[in-house]
């Protein structure tokens, strides 16, 4: 994978606490656990849809700061204009998955998500 000179941060003027958009992130292990629980809850002929997420989200600046902290790298950032159609905040309710599957994320923290991703990248 090629390295970039800097990351582009698309928009810093959103109506959010730090001006960057907010997105809902979930740890891949929590996602996999939800899928396993859904498989055990399958009923033939029945179709169910579950949203999975932390329910609050993290700003792009929070993600960048977590990456800097975990990796020890400065991660240069260049602010670019907003992308057309990007909402200020986008996150989900996992209430149905919690109620029907008994699912709750074990690793809801951003630092855990980034640290495990970084560890995987180091050994890939």
Keywords:
alpha/beta; three-stranded mixed β-sheet; two-stranded parallel ribbon; 4 helices; 11% strand
Structural Rg: 17 Å
Mean of all residue-level pLDDT scores: 94
Separation, N- and C-terminal Cα atoms: 11 Å
- Give the low-confidence spans: none
The DSSP helix count reads: 4
Estimate the global geometry from the Cα principal axes. globular
SSE pattern:
EEHEHEEHH
Strand order of the largest sheet: 3-2-5
Largest sheet at a glance? 3 strands, mixed
Determine the structural class based on helices, strands and strand pairing.
alpha/beta
Q: How many strand elements?
A: 5
* Proportion of beta-strand residues: 5-15%
Share of helix among residues? 25-40%
Structural features, described:
Helix 2 crosses helix 4 (110-123). It is built from 4 helices and 5 strands, in the order ββαβαββαα. The protein has helices at 28-40, 60-71, 95-101, 110-123, and strands spanning 7-10, 22-23, 58-59, 77-80, 89-90. It starts with 6 loop residues before the first strand and ends with a helix. The chain is of the alpha/beta class and 124 residues long. The chain is globular and about 50 Å long. The mean pLDDT is 94. Strands 3-2-5 form a 3-stranded mixed sheet. The longest helix has 14 residues, at 110-123.
In short:
The chain has 124 residues and is of the alpha/beta class.
Write the layout of secondary structure elements.
Blueprint: E1 7-10, E2 22-23, H1 28-40, E3 58-59, H2 60-71, E4 77-80, E5 89-90, H3 95-101, H4 110-123
Parallel strand pairs: 1-4, 2-5
Antiparallel strand pairs: 2-3
């Amino acid at each position: 994978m090629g390295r970039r000179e800097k990351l582009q941060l698309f928009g810093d003027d959103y109506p959010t606490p730090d001006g960057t958009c907010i997105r809902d992130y979930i740890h891949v292990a929590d996602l996999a656990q939800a899928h396993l629980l859904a498989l055990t809850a399958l009923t033939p002929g029945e179709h169910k849809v579950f949203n999975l997420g932390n329910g609050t989200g993290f700003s792009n600046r929070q993600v960048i700061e977590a990456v800097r902290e975990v990796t020890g790298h400065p991660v240069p950032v260049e602010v670019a204009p907003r992308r057309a159609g990007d909402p200020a905040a986008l996150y989900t309710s996992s209430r149905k998955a919690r109620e029907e599957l008994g699912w709750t994320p074990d690793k809801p923290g951003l630092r855990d998500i980034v640290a495990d991703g970084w560890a995987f990248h180091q050994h890939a």
